[in-house]
Structures are given as structure tokens and as C-alpha cells.
Design goal:
- The structure holds 2 protein chains of 2 kinds.
- Chain A contains 7 helices and no strands.
- Chain A is an all-alpha fold.
- Chain A has one domain.
- Chain A is globular.
- Chain A starts with 7 loop residues before the first helix and ends with a helix.
- Chain B folds into 2 domains: 195 residues, no CATH class; 106 residues, Rossmann fold (3-Layer(aba) Sandwich), CATH 3.40.50.
- In chain B, helix 1 runs parallel beside helix 4, helix 6 packs across helix 15 and helix 13 packs across helix 14.
- Chain B is globular.
- Chain B starts with a helix and ends with a helix.
Chain lengths: 100, 321
């Protein structure tokens, strides 16, 4: 069973920078990621957009494993701020999971 | 059991909040590189290290301890360690690299100071006020703490009358030039990398160099700060042949360094992949970032040598008498 959190994207914050809704799930980010299939930014962003909080929380290590190298962003045809979005997810997890 | 991600981030957050750096190091070791250079304190233009090169031996020491203790019973006590660290700076006590380990990293800011002097640039430095920029904390999403640190740095610049900052590494350059203005109001300081400053100076080559190097672009310089032509121009004029590897320029491949503090094994795997790309074009690599330098050296494990670009530039443009 999956519980939706409709407020998840607001809880993640940074609404002016967090543009995960621009992702069209094309997979270029995954194809160019130096870490291969470990991080999958498009999947993380879909969890955020759809309010799938438990799935996002289950990917905590993936969120912190991103190199923030920006190679995906350089190649993204939709102009998603991938690195900044990942940083926003980290900020959210810092509060939600680690109480920082 | 690996060390807890939350505890590690928490330790770095506590240090930045309480001690102005994710890994506070003694002031004498922050400023050691400037000994004997007679640089004025402060002034309108300063060479700003952001402590990045000086921090590397400390980070390396801590990562080795992390890998060692991560598989032992000690890892169960990281939460306790974090609580103690709020009172006593145990991270600095644990990460205590030898003078011999620190020395090569102190050479790099000194190289840059010699190059700028040779180019006729008038500059000072901030000695004990040369604060860490908060780069790693920014990567980890510790935004409130980074904004607080940015305000401290802004206050230091105001205190010394600084209007122009010359940076060395890509992380400090990116923080001061692109991140700070988005975090705090009124950050109007002009920020340039020393590579940009030197490239504008038409500095004559005094000693021609020979050989070839594989150039490894830093992700931040290449994709965020557009520092691409300057290192090639400066290095190419020395006589060195620059070899471009697969994944270069704006398509550069990461060295893995940003993962080192949380996941050193993943960082090493990424470094090995990058070293394999670089080895295809030359047996020596040149870097422009302290994290790239140390991580690629580890990835190569002696199979390839790496040097910071400042060593080549110093030998060619500002050789020691």
C-alpha cells in the first residue's frame, strides 16, 4: 500500500528552484549519469511530484549519493535544475529523517 | 556497520555552526602557506583560499578513520561522538595530519601568490580571517548554516575593505560568485579565479616546459563558472602538450570527490573510472581542484601521476631563482 502525501512538494520547499514538474521522464539524465543506475533523478523527482513520500524516504542513500556534478543538467532537454533539486531533497531529508 | 549518514552530516553541521568550518583546523595551519611571502593583510583585492587546499589532508585523515571505524564496534558510538563534539572539537583532534602530509597542499596557494606577484597584481590576504566558504555544507543541503557562514564572510570582507576577491579552487569560486549572491542580500564583491586573472595578464613564459598531460576539468569550473579556456591558454603557452580525454570541457566526468565524506567507497570507484579515461591519453594528469587532485591520486594508486595546474604554471611563469 502506498500512502500519498499531497503536501510533499511544499514540504520540500524552495518552490522557485524546485522544478521537478518540468521533468518529462526522457531518461537522458540516467543515460549520462557517471554513477549509472544508482541515482535516477527522474525517479526521485516523480516521487516528489506525486507525493510518494515513503518511496522517496526509501531512496535516502541515492539522494546523498548524487555527485552534483551537473552532467545530467548539462544534457537535460527540459531544463530541469537537477543538481539544485537534489540539494532541495537533501535539505528536506536533513529535517525529516535526521532532525537537522 | 557503516557510519550513519545523519551523524556525519550532523557532525559537519555542528562544526560549521559552532566553529565556522565543517572541519575546523588550527589557524596556524590555515595560514602556513603565506609564511615568508610578506603579503599585506587585507586591502581592496585579496587572494582568498577558503581553506580548501589546507583542509584536504584533514579530510583525508578523517575519511581513513571513518573507513576504519565504519566496520568496527566504534561505529555504534557516532551519535555519542557527535554530542561530545559539540563541547570539544574531537574531529580536529582525530584528524591530525603530519606536517609532511600538509606541506604539498600549502605549496599550491603559495604558487598562486608567486604567479600573481609575477603578473604585477597588487593583492593582500586575510590570514586568520580567510574563512571556509561552506561549500560542502551547501552540497549537503544545509542551507540555513551556509547562509549564516556567507554573512560571516561578507562581514570579514567589509571589515578589511575588500571589493575584489581572487580565488584558487572551483568550490570557493562557485560559492562566492554564484551561491552567495543568491543567499544573502548585498553581496557585491567581484570574484575571479586566479586562472582568469592570470589569463588576462599576458604573462611571459620564462621557462619553457616539455611533455604532455591529460587535462581534467573540474565540474564546477567547466559547467558552472565557465573556466575552460583560461587553463588551456595558460598551460598551452608553457610548451606542454594538452591531451583531452573522453569527457572533457563542459562534458567533463566527475572525479568522485564530492562523495568522499559520506561514501568513500563510491568515491573511489568513480575515481578509478575517471583515471581509466585519463590514462587513455597521457600518463600524467593535471587538475585544478583539491578534491579532484586527491581523489584521482587515490583512484590511480600510483599507476598515473597527478599535479595541480599551479605547479606547471609556477615553473613556467614564475620560476624560483
Amino acid at each position: 500500500m502506498t500512502i500519498l502525501n499531497p503536501d510533499l512538494i511544499e514540504e520540500i520547499g524552495h518552490p522557485e528552484q524546485f522544478n521537478a514538474t518540468a521533468c518529462m521522464n526522457c531518461g537522458v539524465c540516467t543515460a549520462v549519469c557517471p554513477l549509472g543506475l544508482e541515482v535516477l533523478p527522474r525517479r526521485l523527482f516523480h516521487y516528489a511530484v506525486l507525493g510518494l513520500e515513503d518511496r522517496l524516504l526509501a531512496e535516502t542513500e541515492a539522494v546523498y549519493s548524487c555527485l552534483l556534478c551537473g552532467l545530467c543538467e548539462e544534457n537535460c532537454p527540459a531544463g530541469v535544475h537537477i543538481a539544485e533539486n537534489v540539494r532541495s531533497l537533501r535539505s528536506y531529508l536533513n529535517h525529516k529523517v535526521y532532525g537537522l | 556497520m557503516p557510519l550513519s549518514t545523519g551523524d556525519l552530516i550532523g557532525l559537519m553541521a555542528d562544526n560549521l555552526r559552532l566553529r565556522r568550518s565543517v572541519l575546523p583546523i588550527p589557524t596556524r595551519n590555515v595560514t602556513r602557506w603565506a609564511r615568508g611571502l610578506d603579503l599585506p593583510r587585507g586591502g581592496t583585492t585579496v587572494l582568498y583560499t577558503g581553506q580548501m587546499y589546507q583542509l584536504i589532508p584533514y579530510i583525508e585523515r578523517l575519511v581513513r578513520l571513518e573507513q576504519h571505524f565504519g566496520e568496527s564496534w566504534v561505529s555504534r558510538f557516532t551519535s555519542l561522538g557527535r554530542r561530545v563534539n559539540r563541547i570539544v572539537n574531537i574531529t580536529a583532534f582525530m584528524a591530525h595530519p603530519s606536517a609532511r602530509t600538509r606541506a604539498p597542499y600549502d605549496e599550491i596557494p603559495a604558487n598562486v601568490a608567486h604567479l600573481l606577484t609575477q603578473a604585477g597584481v597588487q593583492f593582500g590576504c586575510l590570514y586568520s580571517d580567510d574563512l571556509y566558504s561552506g561549500a560542502l555544507a551547501h552540497d549537503l543541503g544545509l542551507d540555513d548554516l551556509v547562509a549564516e557562514q556567507a554573512r560571516r564572510v561578507r562581514a570579514v570582507f567589509a571589515k578589511h575593505g575588500v571589493t575584489d576577491v581572487i580565488t584558487i579552487d572551483p568550490h570557493t569560486t562557485n560559492m562566492l560568485r554564484s551561491v552567495y549572491p543568491s543567499l544573502i542580500d548585498g553581496f557585491t564583491v567581484r570574484v575571479r579565479s586566479y586562472l582568469e586573472v592570470l589569463a588576462e595578464q599576458s604573462l611571459p613564459v620564462r621557462t619553457t616546459l616539455a611533455g604532455e598531460v591529460a587535462i581534467h576539468d573540474s565540474c564546477l569550473f567547466a559547467r558552472r563558472e565557465n573556466v575552460l579556456a583560461q587553463p588551456r591558454d595558460l598551460l598551452g603557452r608553457t610548451g606542454i602538450t594538452i591531451r583531452e580525454p573522453a569527457g572533457t570541457g563542459r562534458s567533463t566526468w566527475c572525479c568522485g570527490g564530492p562523495l568522499e565524506s559520506l561514501y568513500p567507497d563510491k568515491a573511489l570507484a568513480q575515481a578509478r573510472t575517471r583515471v581509466a579515461q585519463l590514462q587513455q591519453v597521457a600518463s600524467t594528469g593535471v587538475t585544478m581542484c583539491p578534491l579532484c587532485l586527491v581523489n584521482l591520486e587515490k583512484g590511480a594508486a600510483g599507476a598515473m601521476t597527478f599535479s595541480d595546474i599551479s605547479h606547471y604554471l609556477r615553473r613556467a611563469y614564475a620560476p624560483q631563482p
